């Protein structure tokens, strides 16, 4: 539903409907689609600090931060709840027009907004209605396939809106970051979300939260391998559906189960995509070389995405696909990206002038990357 924004500075400007990012496979924060190539997520100062001081060598392994220096994609957007004439809550987001104090700047006043009623139930496009709260298993312990979207992102979106609306302040501003949609170039994005490292709690975690995260690591492959499955979707060419797994599935996996899940991630229902193993391994080795050089960085609770297109493209473009692409033998048919830096710490962080200082690189993250590479190499060797 689209209507006139009540925000004065944006009156008369085009409105864009914020919708759930339907290819979100993990995490608990709701990701929203800004446009085909851009997503927005709630702003956390520690993550903002990371992106603003991102080492040059890491940029190819993280989403592009679309903040500074862009007249089209401003650094932050500011959503707020307001009531419309029917008493419904409206989540309105508009770009910062310059300084935090509201002084004018050069960015266009684009208005982004979404509708929900007072109980926080979203009014989405009809093909994105909520069907489940999560990827619940059936009687046989299996999680269902989804034809067009991964329901985990919608689950996160509903939970997020419920939290916001239950304690909403009609004048409160909720800040967002604008980041590259790293799967926008894929017609049928197959995504593996891996929680990296042997430790997940941040330096600022409470004793209760610290104990909870330590327990999760001890009871999963985070302790034994330095990596665990946080979510997954794989396009099945034989059925035309996505096979989806969530974080609860990933927590229960043994090291052997983790290896089997990696194999499943590369299986399209007809065959194992062995052609993807070498480019994925090469990309992971390149990332490993970069991480080894990042002294003082600790990527606590961050994730690593492995991405490829479930549609095997030929040299010619298929114009019947939703977003026709020509990949051919282009190595970009696979991608590896680090995401989620809300608990990342490093020397010189602007969000924390007195952080806990760590020496050397993140050995827990390196341990996870090394094991991930070994497992993929064993798959490549047919083991």
Written overview of the protein:
This protein has 383 residues and is α+β, with helices and mostly antiparallel strands. Helices cover 23% and strands 21% of the residues. It contains eight helices and 16 strands. The strands form three sheets. It has an eight-stranded mixed beta sheet, with helices on one face. A six-stranded antiparallel beta sheet has the order 8-12-11-10-14-15. A two-stranded antiparallel sheet has the order 13-16. The radius of gyration is 21 Å and the shape is globular.
Based on secondary structure, the structural category is alpha+beta
Helix content: 10-25%
Give the biggest sheet. Answer: 8 strands, mixed
How many distinct helices?
Answer: 8
Average of pLDDT: 74
Q: What spatial form do the alpha-carbon principal axes imply?
A: globular
Q: Extract low-pLDDT stretches.
A: 1-14, 68-78, 80-84, 86-139, 315-331
Q: How much strand content do the residues show?
A: 15-25%
Q: What is the C-alpha radius of gyration, as a whole number of Å?
A: 21 Å
Spatial order of the strands in the main sheet? 1-7-6-5-9-4-3-2
The counted number of beta strands is 16
Q: Helix and strand string, N-terminal first? A: EEEEHEEEEHEEHHEEHHHEEEEH
Distance between the termini: 53 Å
Brief overview:
With 383 residues, the chain is an alpha+beta fold. Helix content is 23%, strand content 21%.
């Amino acid at each position: 539903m689209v209507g006139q924004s009540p925000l004065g500075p944006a009156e008369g400007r085009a409105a864009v409907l914020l919708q759930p990012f339907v290819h979100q496979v993990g995490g608990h924060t709701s990701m929203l689609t800004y446009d085909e190539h851009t997503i927005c997520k709630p702003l956390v100062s520690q993550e903002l600090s990371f992106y603003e001081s991102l080492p040059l060598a890491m940029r190819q392994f993280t989403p592009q931060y679309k903040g500074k220096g862009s007249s089209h994609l401003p650094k932050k957007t500011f959503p707020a709840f307001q009531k419309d004439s029917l008493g419904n809550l409206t989540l309105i987001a508009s770009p910062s027009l310059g300084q935090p104090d509201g002084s004018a700047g050069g960015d266009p006043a684009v208005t982004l907004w979404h509708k929900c009623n007072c109980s926080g139930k979203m009014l989405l496009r009809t093909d994105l209605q909520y069907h489940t709260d999560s990827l619940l298993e059936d009687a046989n312990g299996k999680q269902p396939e989804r034809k067009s979207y991964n329901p985990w992102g919608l689950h996160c979106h509903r939970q997020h809106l419920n939290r916001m609306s239950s304690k909403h302040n009609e004048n409160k501003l909720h800040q967002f970051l604008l980041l590259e949609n790293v799967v926008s170039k894929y017609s049928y994005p197959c995504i593996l979300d891996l929680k990296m490292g042997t430790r997940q709690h941040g330096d600022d975690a409470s004793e209760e939260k610290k104990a909870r995260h330590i327990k999760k690591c001890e009871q999963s492959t985070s302790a034994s391998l330095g990596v665990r499955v946080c979510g997954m979707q794989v396009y099945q060419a034989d059925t035309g559906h996505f096979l989806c797994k969530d974080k609860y599935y990933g927590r229960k996996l043994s090291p052997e189960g983790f290896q089997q899940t990696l194999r499943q991630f590369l299986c399209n229902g007809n065959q194992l995509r062995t052609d993807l193993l070498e480019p994925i391994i090469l990309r992971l080795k390149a990332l490993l070389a970069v991480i080894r050089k990042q002294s003082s960085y600790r990527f606590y609770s961050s994730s690593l995405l492995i991405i490829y297109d479930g549609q095997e493209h030929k040299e010619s473009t298929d114009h019947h696909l939703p977003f026709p692409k020509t990949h051919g033998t282009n190595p970009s048919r696979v991608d590896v990206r680090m995401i989620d830096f809300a608990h990342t710490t490093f020397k010189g962080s602007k969000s924390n002038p007195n952080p806990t200082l760590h020496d050397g690189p993140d050995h827990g993250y390196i341990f996870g990357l090394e094991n991930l590479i070994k497992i993929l190499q064993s798959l490549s060797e047919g083991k």
